[in-house]
Automatic annotation (TrEMBL):
Molecular functions per Gene Ontology: acetate-CoA ligase (ADP-forming) activity; acyltransferase activity, transferring groups other than amino-acyl groups; ATP binding; metal ion binding
Keyword ATP-binding part of the UniProt annotation: yes
Protein's recorded name: Acetyltransferase
Protein species of origin: Syntrophus gentianae
Family classification: In the N-terminal section; belongs to the acetate CoA ligase alpha subunit family.
Length: 903
C-alpha cells in the first residue's frame, strides 16, 4: 500500500494540463489544489511560465524534486504519453481526470490498456481514468475537478461513477453530511474498491463507515478480502444498481438460469458482512444508525405515538419482516397506571390528541425496559398538549440511558423542525415518514443478524478422508480430450459419490431388452432417462419416464422415450438409455447447484428442486467455501428450509445430514476449477434417506499456467490443507500442525483460558480478564489469502487439544508480514516456538514477502531469543517493546534455524 498511501497523503503534486482559463478542468483543479498551503504544487503547461501566480513547468520530467502525485487533465489521446513521462520522473501515483476512454469504444479501450501497462512497468498506482478525483477534507486535500467539495466528517464515500458520485456529494452537502474521504474510481484500470478499503483500514482511523456506489466490483478476490477485514470492525454500505433481471443468457442448468449477476452480488455482500441498500438516502441513513453502536438484538419492536402514524408503522414493520413485540403483563400493568382508561392496551401504544410529554416519557420508559422489546419506533405529529421540542428532548434523554435503539418519526411542517434538530444533535435517527424509520430499523437488524451468523462458531463436521481424485481427474481429461463439455449422468454422479453425496447410480442400456435385464437386477420400480451429450434438460424433450413396474412396462416406456426425443430433438445424438432405481414416497425435492459467475467465480445455489424449480424460484446463493454455519445460513434464506422442518404431515428432514451434503458439495466445487455449472436436481429426501436422483456437470479447460492461486475460480481462498504436517514434540509427543478453522474456537478458548496470566500478557501486551467470542473470531475466522494461522494439536485422553498457535499477518499488497506465536505454559521450552517460526518463514518465502517483523515485550526473553537465532535484527520501539525484522532475500540459514531449538 506504500504508493497508494503516498498518493493520498502527498507532499508534492503536479497538475498536467493546468490552465488559467475560467471554467476549464485545468483551472478548477488547480484552484482546488492551491487550497492546501502545506503542499508544493507544480502546474505543468508548456505554453505558460506562470499560472495563477505560480511558476509553471513545461514537462513533469523537469520539475525539481520528487513528485508524490501527478494529476492528468489532458485529452485522452495524450494521456499514455503523459503517464509514460510520470513513470520516467519516478512519480508514485497518478490521478487521471480525463474522459474519452472505454466509454467511446474500442479505440478508447486500447488507450486504457496502454496506460495500465505503463503503470505496471513503472510500479505506479493509477486512479481513473474518467474520474473526478479525490478529496480528504480533514487534510484539505482537494485533487478534484469538482467546484463544491464536502465538509469534514467520518464517512468515506467511494464512487465508481463520476457523475453520480458528484451528485451524491451535492445531495449530502445539502443534508449537512461530512466526509473523511471521497474517491471517484472511474474506469478502475488499477486502483479499485479493494485497494480503497484496504487503505482506509490500514491508514485512516478517522473513517467510521464506508459508503460505496458500485457498478462492477473490480478484482473480486481482493475486494472480498478487504471488505471482510474492514466490515468486522466498521460498517460498509453499498448501493449497486442492477436489481432488475437481465435478459437470460444461454445456460445449461437450472442454477445458471436462476443465479443471475445481481443475486450473486447480493450474496457476496452478505458473505463479506456488507449491508446493501436500494436508495441514495439509505446510504447515509444506514451509515448513521450502524455507527451508533445500538444495534437491535432482534426484530421485535414497540411502536409509540400517533394512532395514524402507528398504523402505518405497523404495516411497514410487517411488510419488511419485523415483528410487533408482545408486551409483558408487567409492562401492560405499568402502562395502565399512566395512560387514560380508554388506551388500546396493546402494542402499538396509541397516544391520542391530548397526549402529554409525561405520557411519552412513561410509555417509552416502560416499553424500552421490556425484555420482549428489541427496539422502539416513536412517532409524533404536532400536538397542542406537547411541543415537538419537549417531546424530542424527553426521547433523547431516555435514548441516552439504554443500549436498545430508538428511532423517531417526526411528521409535520415548521413546528417540528426544532425537535428534529434536537435528535440530530444527539445522534438519534429521525425521519419524516414511518416507512423510512422502519427501513432504518430493519437495516440495523439485518446487518447485525448477518454479522452474528457469519462469525458464529460452526459445529465440527465428522472427520472425512480427502476424496480420491485420480478417477475424477481422468474423467475430466478424457472428456476434454474428446471436446466434450457436458459429463453424462453416470460421470456426474461419480463426482458426487466421491464427495460423500448419496446418488442413485444409473446403468446404460442400448435396447429395451438390456434395460429390462438391468431393471430386474435393480428391482422395480425404475426410472429411465435418455443419454445424450446434446441434451441438457431431458425433461423438456420427454426424455424421462418414471414409475416403470415390470418388463412389459419397460418395453413400451423405452419405445415411448425414444419416440419423444426424436420428435422434440431430432438432431440429438443418442448414446443409450440410463436405468435407475426409483426412490418412492419422496418427501422433499431440493436443488443443489453451482455456476461460475463472471465476477465472483464459482457460486453455490440451494433451494426448492423438482420439475417446477425455475417457476417457483425459491433459492439462495452462497460463495464457497462453506462450513456448517454458512451452510445453515444458505438454507435459512429459503422457503425450502422451513418446509424441510415438516410440511403438511411430512416428517422433518435430517437437517444435519443436508448441511453435511452442502458442505461436501462446496468442497467438490472448490477442488475442481474445471466445473462451469453443476446441477443436482432433485436431491430427494425420503423417510430420512437422501439421494441425488439426477445430476449434470458442465466443464471447461482451465489453464493454470502462471496462475497466482491454485483456486482461480474462487473469490474466497479455501482452507490451505497443504500446510498440514506432523511433528514430534520432544521427547515423544506427536503433534499435528495445521491451519486454524472457525470450528477451532472452543479449543482456542480452552488453550488461552488455561494459560497463565503472564503468558497471555506477553502475547497480547495487556492483562486479559476475559476471552470473549468477539475477541476470538479475529483469530479463527481467517482470510487465508492474507493470514495463515498454524495451530499445534495433540491427542490427550482420546481428545484433541490445542497447545499452541502462530500466525503470519500479511499486508494488503503482499510485500511484508507480521509474525506472532503463543505456546501454552505446559509445553514451553520444548522446541515448539522455533518450529512455529520456521514454518511461518517458509510460508513467507512461498508468498514472496520481502520482509517479516514481530513485536516482542522486552521481558519475553524466550521469544526474543528465538527471533535472534533466526537472524532477525532488533530495534527498540518503546521502553518495553522490541521490534524484530528479517529481510527475506535468500535461503534460510539452516545452521541458525536449527540452533538452540529448545529455547
Amino acid at each position: 500500500m506504500g504508493r497508494i498511501q503516498t498518493m493520498f497523503n502527498p507532499r508534492t503534486i503536479a497538475l498536467i494540463g493546468a490552465s488559467e482559463k475560467p471554467g476549464t478542468v485545468g483551472r478548477t483543479t488547480l484552484e482546488n489544489l492551491l487550497c492546501s498551503k502545506k503542499r508544493k504544487i507544480y502546474p505543468i503547461n508548456p505554453a505558460r511560465e506562470f499560472l495563477l501566480g505560480i511558476k509553471s513547468y513545461s514537462d513533469i520530467t523537469v520539475v525539481p524534486g520528487h513528485v508524490d502525485l501527478a494529476v492528468i487533465a489532458t485529452p485522452a489521446y495524450s494521456v499514455p504519453k503523459m503517464v509514460e513521462k510520470c513513470g520516467l520522473a519516478g512519480v508514485d501515483g497518478v490521478v487521471i481526470l480525463s474522459a474519452g476512454f472505454r466509454e467511446t469504444g474500442e479505440e478508447g479501450k486500447l488507450l486504457e490498456d496502454e496506460i495500465g501497462e505503463i503503470g505496471k512497468r513503472y510500479g505506479m498506482r493509477i486512479l481513473g481514468p474518467n474520474c473526478v478525483g479525490l478529496v480528504r477534507p480533514s487534510t484539505n486535500l482537494k485533487v478534484t475537478l469538482l467546484e463544491n467539495t464536502p465538509p469534514p466528517g467520518d464517512i468515506a464515500f467511494i464512487s465508481q461513477s463520476a457523475a453520480l458520485g458528484s451528485a451524491i456529494l451535492d445531495w449530502a452537502a445539502d443534508a449537512g453530511i461530512g466526509f473523511s474521504m471521497f474517491v471517484s474510481l472511474g474506469d478502475m484500470i488499477d486502483i479499485d474498491f479493494g485497494d480503497m478499503i484496504d487503505f482506509l483500514e490500514e491508514y485512516d482511523e478517522a473513517t467510521q463507515s464506508v459508503l460505496i456506489y458500485m457498478e462492477s466490483v473490480g478484482q473480486a478476490r481482493k475486494f472480498m478480502s478487504a471488505a471482510r477485514r474492514f466490515a468486522r470492525r466498521k460498517p460498509i454500505i453499498v448501493l449497486k444498481p442492477g436489481r432488475s433481471v437481465e435478459s437470460a443468457k444461454a445456460v445449461q442448468s437450472h442454477t445458471g438460469a436462476m443465479a443471475g449477476d445481481d443475486a450473486v452480488y447480493s450474496a457476496a455482500f452478505r458473505r463479506a458482512g456488507i449491508l446493501r441498500v436500494e436508495e441514495i438516502a439509505e446510504l447515509f441513513d444506514a451509515a448513521e444508525v450502524l455507527c451508533s453502536g445500538k444495534l437491535p438484538q432482534g426484530k421485535r419492536v414497540a411502536i409509540i405515538g400517533s394512532a395514524g402514524l402507528s398504523v402505518m408503522t405497523t404495516d411497514s414493520v410487517i411488510k419488511r419482516g419485523g415483528e410487533l413485540a408482545a408486551l409483558s403483563p408487567e409492562s401492560t400493568g405499568q402502562l395502565n397506571t399512566v395512560m387514560p382508561s380508554y388506551w388500546n392496551k396493546a402494542n402499538p401504544v396509541y397516544l391520542r390528541g391530548g397526549a402529554t410529554v409525561e405520557q411519552y416519557i412513561h410509555t417509552l420508559s416502560i416499553c424500552i425496559k421490556d425484555k420482549a422489546v428489541d427496539g422502539v419506533l416513536v412517532n409524533y405529529v404536532p400536538l397542542n398538549s406537547a411541543s415537538s421540542t419537549e417531546v424530542a428532548q424527553a426521547v433523547t434523554d431516555i435514548a441516552g440511558k439504554t443500549s436498545k435503539p430508538i428511532i423517531a418519526t417526526w411528521t409535520g411542517g415548521k413546528d417540528i423542525q426544532e425537535g428534529k434538530q434536537t435528535f440530530l444533535k444527539h445522534g438519534i435517527p429521525v425521519y419524516d415518514t414511518p416507512e423510512e424509520a422502519v427501513r432504518s430499523y430493519m437495516n440495523m437488524y439485518n446487518y447485525k443478524r448477518y454479522l452474528d451468523r457469519l462469525y458464529e462458531t460452526p459445529a465440527q463436521l465428522p472427520e472425512q478422508d480427502a476424496p480420491p481424485k485420480d478417477r475424477l481427474k481422468e474423467i475430466l481429461r478424457n472428456a476434454l480430450a474428446q471436446g466434450q463439455t457436458l459429463l453424462n449422468e453416470q460421470e456426474s454422479k461419480e463426482f458426487l459419490l466421491a464427495y460423500g453425496i448419496p446418488v442413485t447410480m444409473p446403468q446404460v442400456a442400448r435396447n429395451p431388452e438390456e434395460a429390462a435385464v438391468i431393471a430386474e437386477k435393480m428391482g422395480y420400480p425404475v426410472v429411465i432417462k435418455i443419454v445424450s451429450p446434446d441434451l441438457f434438460h431431458k425433461m423438456d424433450v420427454g426424455g424421462v419416464m418414471l414409475g416403470i413396474e415390470s418388463s412389459n412396462d419397460m418395453k413400451s416406456a423405452y419405445a415411448k422415450l425414444i419416440e419423444n426425443v426424436k420428435k422434440h430433438a431430432p438432431a440429438a445424438a443418442l448414446s443409450g438409455v440410463a436405468v435407475e432405481k426409483m426412490m418412492i414416497d419422496v418427501d422433499y425435492e431440493i436443488l443443489l447447484g453451482a455456476k461460475k459467475d463472471k465476477d465472483f467465480g464459482s457460486v453455490l445455489l440451494f433451494g426448492t428442486g423438482g420439475t417446477m424449480t425455475e417457476a417457483i424460484r425459491d433459492y439462495a446463493i452462497g460463495l464457497p467455501p462453506l462450513n456448517k454455519s454458512l451452510a445453515t445460513m444458505l438454507m435459512e434464506d429459503t422457503k425450502a428450509y422451513r418446509m424441510l422442518q415438516g410440511f403438511r404431515g411430512r416428517p422433518t428432514a435430517d437437517l444435519q445430514r443436508v448441511e453435511e451434503i452442502i458442505v461436501n458439495f462446496s468442497n467438490l466445487v472448490v477442488d475442481f476449477p474445471e466445473i462451469v455449472e453443476i446441477d443436482v436436481n432433485p436431491l430427494a429426501i425420503s423417510a430420512g434417506n437422501v439421494a441425488a436422483l439426477d445430476a449434470r456437470i458442465v466443464i471447461e479447460r482451465v489453464d493454470m499456467t502462471g496462475a497466482s492461486s491454485a483456486h482461480p475460480h474462487l473469490a474466497i481462498s479455501p482452507y490451505p490443507a497443504k500446510y498440514i504436517s506432523s511433528w514430534m514434540l520432544p521427547p515423544d509427543t506427536k503433534v499435528i500442525l495445521r491451519p486454524i478453522r472457525p470450528e477451532d474456537e472452543p479449543a482456542k478458548y480452552e488453550m488461552l483460558f488455561s494459560s497463565s496470566p503472564d503468558s497471555l500478557r506477553t502475547r497480547f501486551f495487556s492483562p486479559m480478564k476475559e476471552i470473549p467470542h468477539k475477541f476470538l473470531i479475529y483469530f479463527v475466522n481467517v482470510d487465508y489469502d492474507r493470514n495463515i494461522s498454524i495451530i499445534a494439536e495433540i491427542e490427550e485422553n482420546k481428545k484433541k487439544k490445542m497447545i499452541g498457535a502462530a500466525s503470519i499477518f500479511m499486508n494488503a499488497d503482499g510485500t511484508s508480514g507480521e509474525l506472532a506465536a503463543f505456546v501454552h505454559d505446559a509445553y514451553q521450552g520444548r522446541g515448539l516456538g522455533p518450529k512455529f517460526v520456521h514454518i511461518l518463514l517458509d510460508i513467507a518465502r512461498e508468498k514472496s514477502l520481502h520482509q517479516v517483523r514481530a513485536e516482542v515485550l522486552r521481558e519475553n526473553t524466550r521469544m526474543a531469543g528465538i527471533f535472534r537465532n533466526f537472524g532477525f535484527s532488533a530495534r527498540h520501539l518503546e521502553a518495553d517493546v522490541i521490534e524484530y525484522r528479517l529481510k527475506l532475500n535468500g535461503p534460510l540459514s539452516l545452521l541458525r534455524a536449527s540452533s538452540n531449538l529448545f529455547l
